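User: I'm writing a short methods note and want a consistent example. For GntR family transcriptional regulator, I'll paste the sequence; you return only the structure tokens, no commentary, since I'll be parsing the reply automatically.
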Amino acid sequence: MIDVIVSTIDDRSARGIAGAVSRLVMSGALPAGTRLPTVRELATELGISPTTVSQAWRTLARAGVISPRGRAGTFVLAGPPASADPRRYRRITRSPGRLPHDYSTGTPDVALLPDLAPVLARVARGGNLTASYLDDPVLPALEKALRVRWPFPPAALTVVDGALDALDRVTGVLVGFGSRVLVENPCFPPLLDLFEAVGAEVVALPLDDEGIRPDALRAALSAATPAGAEPVALYLQPRAHNPAGVSMTPRRARALAALLAGRGVTVVEDDHVGDVAAAAPLSLGTYLPEATVHIRSFSKSHGPDLRLAAVGGVESVVNGLVSRRMLGPGWSSRLLQAVLAELLDDDETERTLARAREVYAGRRERMTAALAARGVRAQAGDGINLWMDVADEQVALVSLAARGIGAAPGTPFEAAPLGAAHLRVTVGLIPDDRIDDVAALLAEAAHG
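Assistant:
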């Protein structure tokens, strides 16, 4: 049995050992009740420190995969993964409401959202939309509007309660304990918390100005791994990346799709900014429709309180999500779906979104130019956020807080160490008449 374990371990770090053993458990190669080798036995076979194996065993025990029983030994369980603890998400949501000028939130400017009042009135005149619990989960009018706007023809499509709900439910279908997933670096913190909660092994892929670097994806796909340890999914943000502001180019989408073709990796795209992104909709599903799940959120464009996101693509994934949801909420409010359907077909809303795109673009450009003039490097290519280099993260946060300004720390966004300190600033919330003043304070904080 020790030979089986040793033969599957290609990464001899604590995380690599935990991932390899968990995959053996999930595949049935190490059934429940199997007595595992002692820490010292496995360390000797691998030629590593017993401390490293102990760390791996502790990780597996916390996840409910194995059970240490003192002198009797350590045994395999058939337990669930560890409970969720959104520690990264907590770090970037710690200050909202506590500072006079809070630019840590990643939320849109309320003044740039469509006016819901007339739309709500029109929907209300239509009466109760749900006469039965057995109605289809998506209103036909909304599904039609979404399919027209989808960047590729989705095999299946549904609506859930926002982008994070979509990511959680798609992950529940695709990812198990020990699964390898590929992610952008930097990455949205709640997604990293989610992978930790399900016990996935994260492989970080660096970005450049066009999106995920093809050389990094090629290396991750070609890395020697034991059978069953190949990546199961690639998670990416196709435009207005949070926090880096990168929008993937068509050229980069083609290059990534060519590398992924036939590899059995499901692409999960989080288009969280939607219609207030400067870049046009883009998806690897154009080239890999059979392997792409696209998530389109309407929170930043049409209103956070709509709590709606659409999920479309791979039929088995979307239908699996819908089936599991029947045992929970069943569907997202059809009243809110009707509001969104109206908004998607409303000329005044389109004018509001066009103005929001223009205002956000102006704020990004003015702020990055003001910071550059003060010797600070910052990225804000698209969307509502700015990713700023700082000499010291904690010093910068304290300096800004002392001036009444909130920003989000960069560390929670790191899927792997980036080698430099950063802050995320929601530049879309900074009023036009305050940009120069805030830039001066950000620069002072960045220089430490």
